[in-house]
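debug: dumping io for the single-chain case to check the tokenizer round-trip. Nothing else runs in this session.
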Amino acid sequence: MRRQTLSEADPPARRRPWLLIAASLVLALLSTILWAKWRDSHVRAARLQAELRQVYAEAESLRTEAARNQQRAAVLERELRALSSRGSRESARGTAGR
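debug: decoded output
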């Protein structure tokens, strides 16, 4: 029997899987970048939704005001027609009575 030397008895030194380590670091970096971009877009989307709600509320307010003004204009037109018809009847009576 042959006697084993110290170098033969030890298993060969394992190399580190540098490709796996580098791929893990790249994956971690990309995940961080993706998360940061997602957070920014999420904040921007929330800001835009709040702005959209404000615009809708403002539009509804303007629509309500326009409807109110249309009703007021219709009432004023009716009053004007009533006054002008009453004025023409009175002037017709005044000329007919002479």
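debug: round-trip ok. Helices lie at 6-9, 18-96.
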